[in-house]
Amino acid sequence: MATQTATLDREKLLDWYYQIVLIRHFENKCDELYREKRITGVYLHLYSGHEAVGVGALAALTLDDHVITAYRDHGIALARGMDPKVAMAEMMGKRTGSSGGKGGSMHLAQRDLNFWGGYAIVGGHLPLATGIALKVRYMEEDAVVLCFIGDGATNNGYFHEALNMSAVWDLPVVWLIENNLVGMGTRVEDSSGQPELSKRAIAYGMKNGGRIDGQNVIEVYHAVSDAVKYAKKRGPVLLEALTYRFRGHGVSDRSYDVRDDLVSELKVWQERDPILVLRSHLVEQFEGVESELEKRDQEAAAIVEAAVKFAEESPAPTFEDLIANVYVGRRYDE
Ligand SMILES: Cc1ncc(C[n+]2csc(CCOP(=O)(O)OP(=O)(O)O)c2C)c(N)n1
Questions:
Q1: Backbone angles phi, psi at 284, to 5 degrees
Q2: Is 164 inside any structural domain?
Q3: Which atom of ligand 1 is found nearest the CA of 245?
Q4: Rounded to the nearest whole angstrom, what is the distance from the C-alpha of residue 280 to the centroid of ligand 1?
Q5: Which domain holds residue 272?
């Protein structure tokens, strides 16, 4: 690990730091806007705590690769390169949003980034990942599919079908489980006979990429880079990143307000906040880097403020927009 770390230069690590704090600021702002009812909708799932997984994993890809995830998707969209203005406009249901304001929080997606979304049905995007990978293989593209999976999605049928087929066809997929220890309120050990989730790889005859520290962006980057190389040449890899969400399941989940056991657990994980982990690495490696970190932090906060302004000033979708893109080739007045 030490030699691998040495190959990462200061600028790259500072850029990752920027991306991580950008996501944290974005999510804090979304939380605030939701409470003020400026973002509406039934759910809003924040990525706070998971940032190193998204940023490290996406740093290992090129834009030719494909990305797909579940509903905790804001951080992944930003790390993939979605403009924070476009993401915030989607959160607020505006016409300038990534899905024209019709998708909202759980359905961020952007075609030219090969970022296929944002899916609300637990595990429902896994067969889509297999399908995209089949297309990649069929068209002989030099690309891989990175599919983020919640631990809660590992016990439904989609998981079995999608992973099995990817192994049968030796497809170039990296299955990356973000194990944050719970699916809503259910602990992994209460729902999984084998709680060490990367071991599931054995059942499908695919490469077990192992269990990695999801709070350490550098470790995630190296593990996903290795998995990408393998998947392109030889077939699917299953990786498990251990992480923790610093907020409730969704913003309406107030468990941390009433459960002392969760608060104690949270405190332990906050000591390994991905921001702190990367910050201490940078401070240790590069003398005088503190002012740069501060600068990145302020830049990120300003970008989020500008995104909110853009979103607020953007128009809502029109009636025509409501019906557009529902059926191929069908216009609203036909
Ligand atoms: C098929 C299906 N079943 C149940 C739900 C309700 N549900 C929404 S999120 C969730 C928990 C999923 O947890 P996990 O996959 O670990 O993701 P995390 O929220 O931890 O990111 C459940 C059960 C759903 N959306 N889809």
A1: -65, -40
A2: yes
A3: 20
A4: 33
A5: 2-323
